[in-house]
Design a protein that fits this description.
The protein is mainly alpha-helical and about 260 residues long. Strands 1-2 form a two-stranded antiparallel sheet. It is elongated. Strand 1 and strand 2 form a beta hairpin. The chain has 10 helices and 2 strands, in the order E-E-H-H-H-H-H-H-H-H-H-H.
Amino acid sequence: MTRIRTDGAKGESYNSARGTNTPGRRRRVDNARSCSRTREGNVRGRRTSDNDDDGDGDDDDDRDRGRGRARPRRDRPPARRTHRRAHRSSSSEDEDDGRDARRHRIHPHTFDGNTSFETFWAQFQNCVTYNRWKSDDQLAFLKASLVGDAAQLLWDTDVSEVDTIEKLTTLLHNRYGGSRQIDKHRMELRLRRRQPGESLAHLHHDVHRLMALAHPTLRREDREAVAVDYFVDALDDPEFALKVRERAPSTHDDALNS
């Protein structure tokens, strides 16, 4: 049997079966729990403040270290930029070397002393420009291009006279250049006649070549007019020559197409 009595002083109910004061005990438990939570909250607050203090110290250290590194960082960029410029220049040079390595080389023709030196020299200069040869390269390739009688220069002449590109070029010009054989070319031009079976195109080309060698200082317009007369005379056919002259060609090419 359960009896319930009421404590008038405290107004609390008592359960005789359980032996507990239910409302009062609940308040005490709630108060204990509240105090426990308060203590836990204070402990957590102290820990948080300690951590914040420690973090502030670290941040201060980081700021101090950052301040210490500030000046070197300002001084470093020029060095970095200089390094980058050097790297870019070296990279561009490497790219140029790579392009040069991939370029198709033009090899000069040979010269034996019997053909036109001016023609050979013009082609050789084209190789020099395209292949970007330096002086040593030009000298080596020029010597390698000489064959036959022209190659005799390499052993019947003192080594000191052919050890540079300027010296060897001057020697070749003096021996095989058209300026040294102007009289010879003028005589060949005056005596030039069309051979049996020779085409007009071949005759036209040979007269043009001899004109350039025999009269190198003439202006182009004057050279064309003189070449017409030599071409007509070289036809060696009076009737055909008269027909060409009647058409009054003004240039060497007009004479060929008349």
